[in-house]
Amino acid sequence: MMNGTNSNSKGVVARIWKGSTGVELGVWRGGTSAQFAAKGLKKLYLVDAWSPEPYKNTTEWSWEEYVQRYQKLTGGFTEADFKAYYDRVYRDVVDKFVLNPEVVICRMTTNEFFSKRKSIINKLVDWVYVDASHSYQGVIDDLENCLKIIKPDVGQIFGDDFTNKPQVNKAVTDFAKKHNFDIDVFNKTQYELKK
Question: pTM to 2 decimals?
Answer without folding.
Answer: 0.92
